Every structure is written in C-alpha cells, then in structure tokens.
C-alpha cells in the first residue's frame, strides 16, 4: 500500500528536478527552499554502501565530529566513579553515577541520548544489554564512549557529532544538522560525514563502496547527490 503524502510534501517533490544529481551545497540550498514545516526538521545524510551486511568483517561503524554541531541538545549519562565521575559532572553530563545509575537503568530509565562509561565500569554496564542495546545506547570504544577521559567524551558529544552504523539492508543514515542551519553549515557537516564513512571502509569491501547518497529533511523528499563529485573518496 502506497504511503499517503501531504500537499506540502507533494509540492516539495514538484520543486525537485527529475533525474538531477546535486552537490552537497546545491541540495542544502534547495532543501531550505522547499515548503516549510511547523518545526525545525532534522537533516539526514543517507548512504547505500557496496558491502554485505551479513558479513561481520564488512561492518561499517563510526563517529564523526560535526564542524557546525548537530543543532540538537544532547542528554548524557556517564557510568563512572571517583575522578572520572567528577570530571563528567564538570563537563556537563546530566546523569553521572555507577551502582545507583545502573540500578535506575535496570528499572527502565533511559531518558538520555548518549551513554559513556569508563573501561572499569563496563564490566557491569555490559549487563544492561537488554535496556541499552535496543536503543543503541550501549557504550562502545569505536564511538569514543568507553574511555577514562570522560570529560573529553562528554565535550565531544555535547559539541555535536554524527554516529553511524550499517543496517541490515546495507545502508547508513545520520543526522547532520537542522533546516535552520545555513546551506554552508549543512554542506560542511555533510562533507565531514562523507569523509568519515569513507575512512570506515572495511578492508574486505570490493567494488564501488559508496553507491548513492541522499540528503533529506524529516518530512521532505530525498535529494540525490552526485556521488561522482566525491569520486576520490567514494570509489
């Protein structure tokens, strides 16, 4: 059954030239010209990758600092004790603790966007797989969220970044800002994410790594990018 689209969405779709492939800058400029919504939409960059998601050695995952931030207020929970806990609090983490925070999460508390833990704390935090795993909140060394330098981790998360992970269909999608951002800010954030995805290419990947890229707002049509413009990094 086809999805019913709003008049605003249909009008936006009519403004997108058929078969055109955009640069990041062109896509960001057009996105801001499309009929507006009543809220500041998140802007997402999505990739179709030439890897086999069924193979563990072809997993693509990472994190990317965004030059212009994410435009999102991020709530952070830190599992730590001692100096690491004090540093996390000083850096602005909303929830800091260890045994008490673990008990709270076991009871269903997940009112945070990112979880950070020290390596020592992970011994117990790993037991929260049922609570954190399904929500993508389990700390992971690859995303910089398992570290003794909790202050740096909190600052990095608060400054704005994009976390990305290959899904079962071989795709990646990550937010790079809001429609309130300037086209230049969105383009800079988008380029940073493209570069990060390219760096995360598995050694076992064969053929064309990045097959297509689209830029879209939460409730706007997708704008296909010209991957050839990024051929040096996309091949």
UniProtKB/TrEMBL annotation:
HAMAP family: Ribosomal_uL1_B. PANTHER family: 54S RIBOSOMAL PROTEIN L1, MITOCHONDRIAL, LARGE RIBOSOMAL SUBUNIT PROTEIN UL1M. Binds directly to 23S rRNA. The L1 stalk is quite mobile in the ribosome, and is involved in E site tRNA release. Protein L1 is also a translational repressor protein, it controls the translation of the L11 operon by binding to its mRNA. Keywords: Repressor, Ribonucleoprotein, Ribosomal protein, RNA-binding, rRNA-binding, Translation regulation, tRNA-binding. GO terms for biological process: regulation of translation; translation. Part of the 50S ribosomal subunit. Belongs to the universal ribosomal protein uL1 family. Gene3D superfamilies: 3.30.190.20, 3.40.50.790. It comes from Phragmitibacter flavus. GO terms for cellular component: large ribosomal subunit. It comes from the Bacteria. GO terms for molecular function: rRNA binding; structural constituent of ribosome; tRNA binding. This is Large ribosomal subunit protein uL1. NCBIfam families: rplA_bact.
